[in-house]
Amino acid sequence: MATLSEIEKRLWSAADTLRANSKLRSADYSAPVLGLIFLRYADVRFEEAHQEITASGSSGRRTISKTDYQARGVLFLPPEARYSALLELPGGTDLGKAMNEAMRAIERENEDLKGTLPKGYNLLDNDTLSVLLKNFNDSDLRAAVSAKGEAGDVFGRIYEYFLGRFAASEGQKGGEFFTPTAIVRLIVEVIQPFKGRILDPACGSGGMFVQSARFIREHRRDPSQALSIHGQEKATETVRLCKMNLAVHGLAGDIKQGNTYYEDLHSSIKKGDDDGRFDFVMANPPFNVDKVDKEKLKGDPRFPLGMPSADNANTLWMQIFYTALNPKGRGGYVMASSAGDARGSEKELRREIIEAGGVDIIIAVGPNFFYTVALPCTLWFLDKGKRGTPREDTVLFLDARPLFRQVDRAHRDFTPAQIELLANIARLYRGEEPEFTDGSRDDVDRYFAAEPGSPRSHVYRDVPGLCCAASRESIKGQQWSLNPGRYVGLSPKAPDEFVFLERLEELSEELELLNVQAHGLEERITANTTALLQST
Looking at CB atoms within 10 Å, which of 174, 261, 374, 442 has the fewest? Predict the structure, then answer.
């Protein structure tokens, strides 16, 4: 039997070949294809529930209704929306119209999905739709579902795989709805969302929620019972992608459409006090956004540290995340590398967050992890619960730039072992035990094995070039910089270990960052010059 990875690649290749031979752009094609994956998953789950209901005789003499299915957490599918019914439509049927009607029928029977499912199937010709329907009824795919015993595992992975491939093909637009899975998994493994209310105020297609559920399942818990999911996203189409993604993974959540700068749709701060309402906050917000209307933000309790003087929203996002957390809450988010060293009012806002004791861990990530930008980024982790612990006045810095797997010429990711190593360093720093399921044991043993006679097998220690737990006083001495390179230093290398390409890459990264900063200064000088000329 083919592996799930092989099935994913074959299904993608077939779907992409069909698109290449059609008149559609990737952006027009992605929603209908993702909708088909959703429908195939919903149909498998519906059939499983139908077999259970009829076998158990739980309905007695009464007619089976949609409440019997919904009681099992299954979407109710009317006859015209069954996958088998669509496959068996006679030749000459307008398949685009039939698919659109099937999606509308599902929404009528399942209120939570109202306005969510794609209706653009009329853009695909009959031949293309017919082949797609048959592809997602693949015998290997059916066998994989039977072998796994859980349809959400199979179709969830396929949905995520297709999301990633569509994001790559759509370039900048793709980056708006998809965060690379390796980055998301690392964030989740570090903050460990075992149970509670979780918020992503820039949720895209919902990857943070999906990976949080995966983390919980791997620790033998039920995510539908452990997590309360809340998301906000500006683009309506992306909200739909997120809701389908959750449904395909057997999850439900409160996903709302709105601009997070101006709208706090999940009431993230409790009325009457300064505490947030969430146990976990995770996000990949847009970097270095300008032209946010700060006048609209005045008096908003989410921004207690005030407004940055620079036309840059990075510190606004930092405050949104920090204020949403309850007194024990943890957060993890992606941030532009420049945010850790920004000067002026941004430095003062960063100082206030550090002095409040919430910044816990900073991880530097190398370039080419994202589809939209080649620049490196930084992962910031907050932990309000570290107050009163030995970590209260320290921040753990990790330099993960040397860690990566080259996916293709232009893209990188982390291996599972690299993600586990970085997460285990965070666990050891917190005084927790490491976990070994993905191959990081050798590296953890090498760097963090405890001394003989210690009650623990591993203990945290600083490792040059990899990690450093820096005191607040030393961070102050570095002008409140949160750039890991300032603290971690370089790993010791013998002279003959110098690698020219590595050094060239490091210099290239630095040049790219300087070019971005220079471009920003150029725009600011031009704007100021124009304003001066107009005023004279």
Answer: 442
